[in-house]
Design brief:
This protein has about 170 residues and is α/β, with parallel strands linked by helices. About 35% of the residues lie in helices and about 20% in strands. The protein contains 6 helices and 8 strands. The longest helix is centred in the middle third of the chain and has 20 residues. The protein binds adenosine-5'-triphosphate and magnesium ion. The site of magnesium ion has 4 residues, from helix 1.
Length: about 170
Amino acid sequence: MEWGRGYVQLYIGEGKGKTTAALGLTIRAIGAGLKVAFFQFFKPPTSSEVKVLESFYPQVLYQNFHAGGFVMGNLSQELIEEIRRGWKKALEVAEKREYQVLVLDELTYALNWGIISESELISFLQKKPTSLEVVITGRYAPQSLIYEAHLVTEMKLIKHYFDCGVPARLGIEK
Ligand code: ATP
Ligand code: MG
């Protein structure tokens, strides 16, 4: 199919819908015959969408990068290394030009915690293959990333049933 220039999209904010928006875009993209690299950071690959994404291999390349979080209030070395490994892999995948869409789900936390520097990410976005569409999700994004992106959608929290004690539900939140 015809495929032109790829843009940088950012889904941020405290309301629900960032990862599901990235998943919706993935469905649309594969329906159009595009190939998607879907990289999920920090969370284990236990959410139900993972089974679907993996079933679409090789049109979808799903990769997960996580490790046991914090040690005495500090990020564990294991987690830092795992996220760095995922970041490096994402750069390689972008360079290969096999995929038209690269989703970096929850990547903004890597910036918030200093695992990836803003300048590293911005430099990647400036030098990425022109045809690659990049989608980044996570709650908070630095101004430099908002400036660099071509599309920024903030999921605004107006109400969430979690505040009434509703736990994460299978098929809806996980
Ligand atoms: P989704 O994956 O549903 O699109 P999201 O990507 O926008 O959500 P994340 O910040 O990645 O949201 O949160 C992951 C999950 O945690 C989501 O399903 C979200 O609904 C849920 N969540 C959001 N806020 C809270 C909260 N205050 N307490 C518990 N869980 C929450
Ligand atoms: Mg999410």
